[in-house]
């Protein structure tokens, strides 16, 4: 099975590279700048046509949530126009596309986890650009899967877990927002999900349940309690830890609005693909351990 993945250095791309490295029947080609540049649409189709993958995984994205408020044109060029062109090029070579999206397409007003058929209502430029990307992908390639995920962390790149460990090494106490809840999701678990789904798409030639799915860590928490868990795990493994002072969103203003409720229901993914995402606490322990080892 040959996969083309857009982007090379992101958390999901790095996790896919690691997970697929032990699979003899999976070949992954990573296509990033300058070879494939989502801001230069003329680079997209030739790259995908040259590789002729079985499946395209659209992982590259503009993810600077606050900066997007100042660069809406760039955010939409990458997350909407570029994503749509990737989907169109995949369709032209007969390949389905797996598009990664985000919990930020929702406004966060519901008092329960969001389902795939709940109405989106992005509150930020980033969220709006990702929603536009979902729509562009669906319009360009009927054989599409949109995988919405949330609160991504991993042993790679910048993320909340790495930031907390860095802060704990310098401070005795950190202030963390406690009135935003969601599903912490390891990029390694996302990679496992993508590979399991891709394998089924190759085997199930009659698959017709295309559309939107939620792929997020099992269990939910808030940012402050997420930090408490990280510090507890780090302390147990001999790493740095700090006290957490819970604060309200209003006490930590950001340029872009974040949804108060980012919880995603994943029952559809489990029902259709039989794939279950691990509890976030176990996955977090693995990532904290790896990050601490990297610092030695």
**Count of individual helical segments:** 9
Strand numbers in spatial order across the main sheet: 2-1-3-4-5-10
Number of strands: 12
- The CATH superfamily of the domain at 2-157 and 185-218 and 271-278 is known as NAD(P)-binding Rossmann-like Domain
User: Kindly, what is the distance between the CA atoms of the first and last residues, rounded to a whole number of angstroms?
Assistant: 37 Å
Residue stretches low in confidence (pLDDT < 50, at least 5 long) are none
Structural class: alpha/beta
Compressed to H and E, one letter per element, the order equals EHEHEHEHEEHEEEHEEHEHH
Cα-based radius of gyration, to the nearest Å: 19 Å
User: What oligomeric state do these chains adopt?
Assistant: single chain
Fraction of residues in β-strands: 15-25%
On the 0 to 100 scale, the average pLDDT is 97
Query: Sheet bearing the most strands, described?
Result: 6 strands, parallel
Here the CATH topology of the domain at 2-157 and 185-218 and 271-278 equals Rossmann fold
Second rung of CATH, namely the architecture of the domain at 2-157 and 185-218 and 271-278: 3-Layer(aba) Sandwich
Question: Tell me, what is the CATH class of the domain at 2-157 and 185-218 and 271-278?
Answer: Alpha Beta
Overall spatial form? globular
Helix content: 25-40%
Mind explaining what this structure looks like?
With 296 residues, this protein is α/β, with parallel strands linked by helices. Helix content is 40%, strand content 16%. The protein has a domain at 2-157 and 185-218 and 271-278: Rossmann fold. The protein has nine helices and twelve strands. It has a six-stranded parallel beta sheet with strand order 2-1-3-4-5-10, sandwiched between helices. Strands 6-9 form a two-stranded parallel ribbon. Strands 7-12 form a two-stranded parallel sheet.
